[in-house]
Design brief:
Blueprint (H helix, E strand, L loop, with lengths): L5 H47 L4 H54 L8 H4 L2 E3 L5 E7 L7 H4 L4 E10 L5 E9 L6 H5 L2 E4 L2 E10 L4 E3 L11 E8 L11 E8 L7 H4 L51
Antiparallel strand pairs: 1-2, 2-3, 3-4, 4-5, 6-7, 6-8, 8-9
Length: 314
């Protein structure tokens, strides 16, 4: 029996170790392609997953369409709000303008004046129709439109007339001129526009004889007792052809025409000159109580203490 040497015993583990190393490398080589195929499969899966997370062209087009519809709805709502605001402001301005127009005409009528001996300057004239106008003389306050232009000349002739304006519409204008003076160039060419889009300006006068309204005033040398005027206004030129707002006012003139005899009295003081008829409601003899006929007697009071008549015995 052969006994192995110690050297041979030492070499056996080395051979076994080398064999294991060779086996390990072989196993790595054997398993190499499979690992590479695993890496390739993982790369392909991640690439497909990355491609699946993107948007398609159809989805982008649908999103753009939805966004456009949302923006169109917002824009339409905004334009509707702006249109409604503009319409409301125009309506409020039209109402305020109509109030100013009616107030201006009413205030001027309340300040009307007339003198019998100067009818060529104080005539009260009016006309209805498409080119209607109203002209008279009044003592106007400082708050009246364009009063600063005339300074202290408060007695002026005012003329309200319906004339052609812009956009084929009609407008109500005001012209003023001091008494005994003609219209200046600026007032004639650039009158004060009181109301735009006015289609009708009608004036009527109360007839005390018939008890009804007349659309014509023939007594230009006198002031009427009652004046009714109406004005139709619209908010715009398009609305002027449709239903319009009509405003009506009735004004009672507090003044009356001063008779010529009262301006230049002749004959007996306190009496009217011959041929002059007294007007109702006017005292024909100033300074004389019409109830008693006594001079220097206050109105509404008896002439003095009343003494009873003595009773005669029967």
């Amino acid at each position: 029996m052969r006994v192995p040497s110690p050297k041979s015993k030492v070499q056996c583990p080395r051979v076994a170790h080398d064999f294991s190393r060779v086996t390990f490398h072989v196993s790595r080589i054997a398993h190499g392609p499979r690992n590479l195929s695993g890496h390739a499969s993982r790369f392909n899966d991640s690439t497909v997953q990355r491609f699946n997370s993107a948007f398609t062209l159809i989805e982008i087009l649908i999103a753009i369409g939805i966004l456009g519809m949302v923006l169109a709805a917002i824009f339409s709502s905004w334009t509707a709000i702006l249109r409604a605001t503009r319409v409301g402001l125009d309506a409020a301005a039209a109402v305020q303008r109509s109030r100013i127009v009616m107030r201006t005409i009413e205030d001027s009528l309340l300040c009307a004046q007339s003198f019998g001996l100067n009818q060529r300057y104080y005539g009260f004239e009016a006309k209805n129709g498409s080119d209607g106008y109203l002209s008279f003389v009044a003592r106007l306050p400082e708050s009246f439109p364009r009063s600063r232009k005339f300074g202290d000349l408060r007695v002026r002739r005012v003329t309200f007339s319906l004339e052609s304006g812009t956009e084929s519409s009609r407008q109500l204008v005001l012209r003023q001129s001091p008494l005994l003076m003609d219209l200046d160039k600026d007032e004639n060419e650039h009158p004060l526009v009181l109301a735009k889009y006015a289609s009708d300006f009608k004036i009527e006068f109360w007839n005390t004889r018939t008890g009804d309204w007349d659309d014509e005033w023939k007594q230009t040398n006198q002031l009427p007792k009652l004046v009714k005027f109406s004005l139709k206004l619209a908010d715009s030129a398009n609305a002027a052809r449709q239903a319009q707002q009509e405003m009506v006012r009735i004004v009672q003139l507090p003044a009356t025409t001063v008779a010529g005899g009262w301006q230049m009295p002749m004959g007996i003081p306190g009496r009217l000159p011959p041929g002059t008829t007294p007007q109702p409601g006017i005292n024909p003899q100033p300074g004389v109580n019409p109830n008693t006929g006594l001079p220097n007697q206050p109105l509404g009071q008896p002439p003095g203490p009343i003494t009873p008549l003595p009773i005669r015995p029967q």
